[in-house]
UniProtKB/TrEMBL annotation:
PANTHER family reported in the protein's UniProt record: NUCLEAR INHIBITOR OF PROTEIN PHOSPHATASE-1
Keywords, alphabetical: Phosphoprotein
Keyword Phosphoprotein appears in the UniProt entry: yes
Signal peptide residue numbers: none
Name of this protein: FHA domain-containing protein
UniProt key word Phosphoprotein: yes
Tree of life domain: Bacteria
Pfam families noted in UniProt: FHA, FhaA_N
Protein backbone atom coordinates (compact mmCIF):
# COMPACT_ATOMS: atom_id res chain seq x y z
CA UNK A 1 0.00 0.00 0.00
CA UNK A 2 1.45 3.37 -1.06
CA UNK A 3 1.72 6.56 0.94
CA UNK A 4 -1.39 8.17 -0.51
CA UNK A 5 -3.47 5.01 -0.18
CA UNK A 6 -2.51 4.93 3.49
CA UNK A 7 -3.38 8.58 3.87
CA UNK A 8 -6.82 8.14 2.32
CA UNK A 9 -7.59 5.33 4.75
CA UNK A 10 -6.41 7.48 7.65
CA UNK A 11 -8.54 10.36 6.42
CA UNK A 12 -11.61 8.15 6.35
CA UNK A 13 -11.05 7.45 10.02
CA UNK A 14 -10.60 11.16 10.80
CA UNK A 15 -13.63 12.64 9.04
CA UNK A 16 -17.02 11.41 7.92
CA UNK A 17 -18.09 11.40 4.27
CA UNK A 18 -20.43 14.38 4.67
CA UNK A 19 -17.59 16.63 5.91
CA UNK A 20 -15.29 15.38 3.16
CA UNK A 21 -17.67 16.86 0.56
CA UNK A 22 -16.52 20.33 1.57
CA UNK A 23 -13.16 19.60 -0.10
CA UNK A 24 -14.57 19.07 -3.58
CA UNK A 25 -14.01 22.65 -4.79
CA UNK A 26 -10.65 23.16 -3.05
CA UNK A 27 -7.51 21.35 -2.02
CA UNK A 28 -7.76 17.68 -1.05
CA UNK A 29 -5.88 16.48 2.04
CA UNK A 30 -4.31 13.72 -0.05
CA UNK A 31 -2.81 16.42 -2.31
CA UNK A 32 -1.06 17.95 0.71
CA UNK A 33 0.44 14.56 1.55
CA UNK A 34 1.65 14.21 -2.03
CA UNK A 35 3.19 17.70 -2.00
CA UNK A 36 5.02 16.96 1.28
CA UNK A 37 6.42 13.75 -0.14
CA UNK A 38 7.66 15.53 -3.28
CA UNK A 39 9.29 18.23 -1.15
CA UNK A 40 11.15 15.83 1.12
CA UNK A 41 12.32 13.69 -1.82
CA UNK A 42 13.53 16.79 -3.67
CA UNK A 43 15.38 18.31 -0.72
CA UNK A 44 16.88 15.14 0.79
CA UNK A 45 20.66 15.31 0.41
CA UNK A 46 23.19 12.46 0.38
CA UNK A 47 25.94 13.47 2.81
CA UNK A 48 27.87 10.18 2.71
CA UNK A 49 27.56 6.68 1.28
CA UNK A 50 24.99 5.59 3.87
CA UNK A 51 23.55 8.88 5.17
CA UNK A 52 20.73 10.89 3.62
CA UNK A 53 19.67 14.05 5.43
CA UNK A 54 16.14 15.39 4.89
CA UNK A 55 14.50 18.65 6.00
CA UNK A 56 12.59 18.38 9.26
CA UNK A 57 10.44 21.54 9.20
CA UNK A 58 7.58 22.01 6.70
CA UNK A 59 5.14 24.88 6.19
CA UNK A 60 2.15 24.19 3.93
CA UNK A 61 0.82 27.36 2.25
CA UNK A 62 -2.85 27.30 1.18
CA UNK A 63 -5.50 29.78 0.13
CA UNK A 64 -7.66 31.31 2.86
CA UNK A 65 -10.63 29.06 2.05
CA UNK A 66 -8.51 25.88 1.88
CA UNK A 67 -6.77 26.78 5.13
CA UNK A 68 -10.11 27.16 6.89
CA UNK A 69 -11.30 23.80 5.56
CA UNK A 70 -8.12 21.99 6.62
CA UNK A 71 -8.09 23.56 10.07
CA UNK A 72 -11.64 22.35 10.49
CA UNK A 73 -10.18 18.84 10.74
CA UNK A 74 -8.27 19.82 13.87
CA UNK A 75 -4.96 18.35 14.97
CA UNK A 76 -5.83 14.98 13.43
CA UNK A 77 -4.81 16.18 9.97
CA UNK A 78 -1.31 17.35 10.87
CA UNK A 79 -0.80 14.28 13.08
CA UNK A 80 -1.68 12.05 10.13
CA UNK A 81 0.57 13.99 7.77
CA UNK A 82 3.47 13.79 10.22
CA UNK A 83 3.00 10.03 10.68
CA UNK A 84 2.90 9.44 6.94
CA UNK A 85 5.96 11.58 6.28
CA UNK A 86 7.85 9.76 9.05
CA UNK A 87 6.89 6.42 7.51
CA UNK A 88 8.06 7.57 4.07
CA UNK A 89 11.35 8.83 5.55
CA UNK A 90 11.99 5.46 7.22
CA UNK A 91 11.30 3.64 3.95
CA UNK A 92 13.75 5.88 2.09
CA UNK A 93 16.43 5.80 4.82
CA UNK A 94 16.26 9.55 5.53
CA UNK A 95 17.55 11.10 8.77
CA UNK A 96 16.10 14.28 10.28
CA UNK A 97 18.30 16.93 11.98
CA UNK A 98 15.51 17.79 14.41
CA UNK A 99 11.90 17.03 15.35
CA UNK A 100 9.56 16.70 12.38
CA UNK A 101 7.11 19.63 12.28
CA UNK A 102 4.32 20.44 9.82
CA UNK A 103 2.36 23.72 9.94
CA UNK A 104 -0.50 24.93 7.74
CA UNK A 105 -0.61 28.65 6.96
CA UNK A 106 -2.88 30.89 4.91
CA UNK A 107 -1.25 32.67 1.96
CA UNK A 108 -3.18 35.12 -0.21
CA UNK A 109 -0.74 34.47 -3.08
CA UNK A 110 -1.83 30.82 -3.33
CA UNK A 111 -4.88 30.03 -5.45
CA UNK A 112 -7.73 27.88 -4.14
CA UNK A 113 -7.09 24.23 -4.92
CA UNK A 114 -3.30 24.54 -5.00
CA UNK A 115 -0.59 23.96 -2.40
CA UNK A 116 2.93 25.27 -1.83
CA UNK A 117 5.34 23.64 0.62
CA UNK A 118 8.39 25.35 2.10
CA UNK A 119 10.88 23.17 3.99
CA UNK A 120 13.92 23.75 6.14
CA UNK A 121 15.91 22.48 9.09
CA UNK A 122 15.22 25.31 11.55
CA UNK A 123 18.60 26.96 10.83
CA UNK A 124 20.41 24.14 12.60
CA UNK A 125 24.00 23.11 11.90
CA UNK A 126 24.23 19.36 11.54
CA UNK A 127 27.06 17.02 12.45
CA UNK A 128 27.07 13.25 12.93
CA UNK A 129 27.32 11.38 16.21
CA UNK A 130 28.05 7.71 16.86
CA UNK A 131 26.00 6.13 19.65
CA UNK A 132 25.55 2.71 21.21
CA UNK A 133 22.06 1.78 22.43
CA UNK A 134 21.84 -0.63 25.38
CA UNK A 135 18.42 -1.59 26.79
CA UNK A 136 16.89 1.61 25.44
CA UNK A 137 19.64 3.91 26.76
CA UNK A 138 21.85 5.86 24.36
CA UNK A 139 25.57 6.18 24.98
CA UNK A 140 27.28 8.77 22.73
CA UNK A 141 30.79 7.86 21.63
CA UNK A 142 32.73 11.00 22.43
CA UNK A 143 36.23 9.65 21.85
CA UNK A 144 38.18 7.50 19.41
CA UNK A 145 38.18 4.34 21.58
CA UNK A 146 35.23 3.17 23.68
CA UNK A 147 35.55 0.00 25.76
CA UNK A 148 32.42 -2.07 26.47
CA UNK A 149 32.27 -4.72 29.17
CA UNK A 150 31.18 -5.88 32.62
CA UNK A 151 33.90 -4.08 34.56
CA UNK A 152 33.34 -0.77 36.31
CA UNK A 153 36.34 0.66 34.45
CA UNK A 154 34.69 0.06 31.03
CA UNK A 155 33.40 3.16 29.22
CA UNK A 156 30.03 1.44 28.70
CA UNK A 157 29.21 -1.05 31.47
CA UNK A 158 26.74 -3.88 30.85
CA UNK A 159 25.39 -6.09 33.62
CA UNK A 160 25.81 -9.39 31.83
CA UNK A 161 27.59 -12.33 33.47
CA UNK A 162 28.41 -13.67 30.00
CA UNK A 163 30.57 -10.65 29.20
CA UNK A 164 34.20 -10.04 30.14
CA UNK A 165 35.34 -7.07 32.20
CA UNK A 166 36.78 -5.47 29.06
CA UNK A 167 34.94 -7.36 26.37
CA UNK A 168 35.16 -5.29 23.18
CA UNK A 169 35.96 -1.83 21.93
CA UNK A 170 34.49 0.50 19.31
CA UNK A 171 36.91 2.64 17.32
CA UNK A 172 35.32 5.79 15.85
CA UNK A 173 37.09 8.44 13.72
CA UNK A 174 34.10 10.70 13.14
CA UNK A 175 33.29 9.05 9.81
CA UNK A 176 33.66 5.27 10.20
CA UNK A 177 33.52 2.78 13.05
CA UNK A 178 35.20 -0.54 13.77
CA UNK A 179 34.45 -3.17 16.44
CA UNK A 180 37.29 -5.18 17.98
CA UNK A 181 36.96 -8.07 20.42
CA UNK A 182 39.43 -7.71 23.31
CA UNK A 183 40.13 -11.40 23.81
CA UNK A 184 36.84 -12.00 25.60
CA UNK A 185 35.94 -15.41 27.02
CA UNK A 186 32.68 -15.87 25.12
CA UNK A 187 33.41 -13.82 22.01
CA UNK A 188 31.51 -11.04 20.25
CA UNK A 189 28.90 -11.24 17.48
CA UNK A 190 28.04 -8.70 14.80
CA UNK A 191 24.61 -9.23 13.25
CA UNK A 192 24.68 -12.80 14.55
CA UNK A 193 28.17 -13.71 13.27
CA UNK A 194 31.09 -14.23 15.65
CA UNK A 195 33.94 -11.85 14.83
CA UNK A 196 37.29 -10.70 16.17
CA UNK A 197 37.13 -7.43 14.24
CA UNK A 198 34.50 -5.98 11.92
CA UNK A 199 33.33 -2.64 10.45
CA UNK A 200 30.22 -1.12 12.02
CA UNK A 201 27.72 0.43 9.60
CA UNK A 202 24.84 2.32 11.21
CA UNK A 203 22.11 0.10 12.74
CA UNK A 204 24.47 -2.84 13.31
CA UNK A 205 23.53 -5.22 16.16
CA UNK A 206 26.43 -6.28 18.42
CA UNK A 207 25.89 -9.19 20.81
CA UNK A 208 27.97 -9.46 23.98
CA UNK A 209 26.96 -12.40 26.17
CA UNK A 210 23.15 -12.31 26.11
CA UNK A 211 22.99 -8.55 25.58
CA UNK A 212 22.22 -6.97 22.21
CA UNK A 213 23.66 -3.50 21.59
CA UNK A 214 22.84 -1.38 18.55
CA UNK A 215 25.43 0.87 16.97
CA UNK A 216 23.98 3.91 15.17
CA UNK A 217 25.23 7.05 13.45
CA UNK A 218 22.70 9.84 13.95
CA UNK A 219 22.51 13.52 12.96
CA UNK A 220 23.12 16.02 15.74
CA UNK A 221 21.39 19.41 15.54
CA UNK A 222 23.16 22.37 17.14
CA UNK A 223 21.15 25.60 17.31
CA UNK A 224 24.10 27.70 18.35
CA UNK A 225 23.33 27.67 22.07
CA UNK A 226 24.68 25.11 24.50
CA UNK A 227 21.95 22.58 23.77
CA UNK A 228 22.77 19.78 21.34
CA UNK A 229 20.21 17.19 20.34
CA UNK A 230 20.68 13.87 18.58
CA UNK A 231 18.01 12.30 16.40
CA UNK A 232 17.71 9.12 14.38
CA UNK A 233 15.63 8.50 11.30
CA UNK A 234 11.95 8.50 12.27
Amino acid sequence: MGLLDSFEKGLERAVNSAFAKTFRSGIQPVEIASALRREIDTKAAVVSRDRILAPSSFVVHLSDDDTAAMRGLGAGLTDELRALLSKHARAQGYSFPGPLTIAIESDDKVATGTVTVISGAADERVTWQAIVEVDGSRHPLGKARTVIGRGSDADITIGDAGSSRKHAEVLWDGERAMLRDLGSTNGTKVDGQKVREAPLPSDTVVTIGRTDLVFRIVPVADRGDDATRAFGAL
